[in-house]
Amino acid sequence: QFTIKDHDEL
Amino acid sequence: MNIFRLFGDLSHLAAIAILLLKIWKTRSCAGVSGKTQLLFAVCFITRYIDLFLHFVSLYNTEKVMKLIYISASVFTCYLIFFKFKATYDGNHDSMRAEFLIVPAAGLACLINTKFDAIEILWTFSIYLEAVAILPQLFLISKTGEAETITSHYLFAQGSYRALYILNWIYRYHYESHVDTIAIVAGVVQTILYCDFFYLYITKVVKGQKIVLPA
Question: Main site of residence (chain B) (predicted)?
């Protein structure tokens, strides 16, 4: 299961 | 945080610093596309809009980095369009930025992870960043050459997203983290640099200047 967290990159 | 993302962000910071130094030291923005810098400023503002909405204390480096990116890109635009306006090569910086902004905005409304304002702005910023370098590459193809320092800027700018691709591979493998929109846009963005990378590796590294076939 792939997780898309909140965009945690710059 | 992994080594690829760390060096990606450092490369991005280096690119911004190199460009600022070039303009400040030579007191000229010849060979620099003001439109690309404007597009980058728009990218940072729309991507880091959360800084303005719920401003939390600068408790971590990420907030500081976001502020550095926004202020440095706005300051770069100020240098190009105000302080050293006389040296701005407007005639060659002639790619229509609207042709990049409108499709990015349209696509952000069609393909996004969730249809809410902040997410649409973030998606727009990702799509716009993928094509934001085009006016700069267009300008170089029009003038037929690039100053060595400008090619170093472009190399650092292109490497940042290339390193992010390695970061995404790493995160896919170890954290099963996938952000498809950022990955697809990042791959497109890096592909746009390919011919420049080839010229940079074959020419600039040997101390020659980049001269494009006019």
Answer: membrane
